[in-house]
Amino acid sequence: MALTLGFAGQGFAYYAVTAWLPSLLADVQRQSSAAAGASSSLFQITAVAGAPGVPALATRLSLRTIVATVSCLWLALPFGLILGSGLWPLWLTLGGIAQGGGVTVIFIAVVRLARNEPVSGAAEDAFADSSR
User: At 75, phi and psi to the nearest 5?
Assistant: First the structure.
């Protein structure tokens, strides 16, 4: 159940931000539609840094610390845009890193929280069966 909620939350956040960001940049930053679309690509590009960044952190930090860090980065995006919209490149970068790292955190949680290898494999098999 937690795996399903994790993936659903990650997917919802990603698609909501992807759909909302160009409109927000156009409205708040007074960017043209083309500029807002190009500017919002910063969110997509920085996600590439989050995906390998989380496993690198996982070798040094606890799962709770990683989840808290990714969660704070996700929250920095909407709150930063609301409270300090002039720093939008920073907020898009932090949110992008969180987006890329969020999926990785879910898979790391499956591996770390499993009691043994067969339990971890069963969780992965159940996810694969449910996605068909």
Answer: -70, -25
DSSP conformational letter for 131: T
Which residues are within 8 A (CB) of 68 and not within 5 positions of it... i.e. 6 or more apart?
Answer: none
- Distance, CA of 80 to CA of 115 (rounded, Å): 39
Residues with Cβ < 8 Å from 109, sequence gap 6 or more? Answer: 2, 3, 6, 63, 67
Q: How many CB atoms lie within 10 A of CB 122?
A: 12
Cα gap 26→67, rounded to integer Å: 31
N-to-C CA span, the chain = 17
For the chain, which ranges sit under pLDDT 50?
127, 130-132
Please state the pTM of the whole predicted model.
0.78
